[in-house]
């Protein structure tokens, strides 16, 4: 009972004895209420907990809130009132709160507007609109390049298993020539991860450093960008081996890779350079057989030597 309601009821009592009795009963009620919240691990009452609380006391159910999407009917979701969107309260709340702080984000407690939620996740992923059809189904090896089938199939299977969450390893590095299909596999893996409900980020590594430099030049906190890559559910670092990296660039990549390795978070990386261009610290993580796959795609550049599926 809120303070205003408490005051209204108390003021309606016309003698001291009645008010004293009311105060005592209200005090006991508050203690039971606090025990209930502690039992549920809550700091304040939620709509879902309120239903159980009223049942426990033998009170009639509170009238349901009207749906904001379908006026005249009860809301099926007390979190968003069927709108499908809520405003985040912090990083411990809605899944997509961090990259869109202060903006309305999809409600994670109901299935309302599932397509809108999936579309939001896609927009936040960084996968370009032009590459959202780069799926595993469209990854087709041209017949004239059949001699590369074994190498391509191994890379395909590793990427697919990582994306589906069925791989015994959680880190994957595919390296090979430009145009051999590495990035297509990376996009395809990202699309599968999104379909599984994972907060997925596709990051072209040279662009990452441009974004970090821009943030620092503007006096903004560049650490938020790195934290987002470290903490997302599924990360793709395309072209991870930057040519002639500065000490700062090498440290950023090492920080991201090392943090994800330490916390067993999936990481899919690609590069068109040799694996040792990553540097010893990063390479050591990808060479760990208990946690990682590292493989070369032997296929040539199909964009110039032959058609490559739906690229």
Automatic annotation (TrEMBL):
Gene3D superfamilies this protein is in?
P-loop containing nucleotide triphosphate hydrolases
> What terms describe the molecular function in GO for this protein?
ATP binding
- Keyword ATP-binding in record: yes
User: Which keywords label this protein?
Assistant: ATP-binding, Nucleotide-binding
Sorted alphabetically, the Gene Ontology BP terms of this entry are: DNA replication
Q: Does the UniProt entry include the keyword Nucleotide-binding?
A: yes
Q: Which Pfam families match?
A: IstB_IS21 (PF01695)
Quote the protein name from its UniProt record.
Putative IstB domain protein ATP-binding protein
């Amino acid at each position: 009972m809120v303070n205003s309601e408490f005051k209204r009821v108390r003021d309606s009592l016309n003698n001291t004895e009645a008010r004293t009795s009311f105060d005592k009963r209200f005090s006991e009620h508050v203690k039971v209420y606090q025990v209930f919240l502690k039992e549920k691990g809550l700091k304040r009452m939620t709509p879902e907990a309120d239903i159980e609380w009223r049942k426990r006391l033998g009170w009639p159910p509170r009238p349901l809130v009207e749906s904001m999407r379908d006026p005249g009917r009860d809301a099926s979701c007390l979190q968003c009132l069927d709108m499908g969107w809520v405003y985040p309260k912090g990083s411990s709340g809605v899944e997509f709160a961090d990259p869109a702080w202060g903006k309305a984000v999809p409600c994670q407690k109901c299935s309302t507007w599932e397509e809108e939620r999936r579309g939001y996740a896609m927009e936040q992923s960084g996968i370009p609109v032009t590459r959202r059809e780069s799926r595993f189904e469209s990854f087709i090896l041209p017949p004239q390049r059949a001699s590369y089938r074994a190498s391509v199939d191994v890379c395909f299977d590793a990427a697919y298993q990582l994306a589906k969450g069925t791989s015994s390893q959680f880190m994957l590095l595919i390296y090979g020539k430009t145009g051999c299909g590495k990035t297509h596999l990376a996009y395809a893996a990202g699309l599968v991860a999104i379909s599984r409900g994972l907060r997925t980020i596709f990051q072209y590594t040279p662009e990452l450093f441009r974004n970090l430099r821009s943030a620092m030049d503007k006096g903004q906190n560049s650490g938020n960008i790195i934290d987002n890559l470290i903490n997302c559910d599924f990360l793709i670092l395309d072209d991870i081996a930057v040519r002639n990296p500065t000490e700062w660039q090498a440290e950023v990549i090492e920080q991201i890779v090392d943090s994800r390795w330490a916390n067993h978070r999936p990481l899919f990386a690609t590069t068109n350079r040799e694996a040792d261009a990553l540097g010893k610290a990063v390479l050591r993580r990808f060479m760990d057989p208990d946690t990682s796959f590292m493989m070369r795609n032997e296929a040539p550049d199909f964009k110039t030597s032959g058609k490559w599926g739906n690229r």
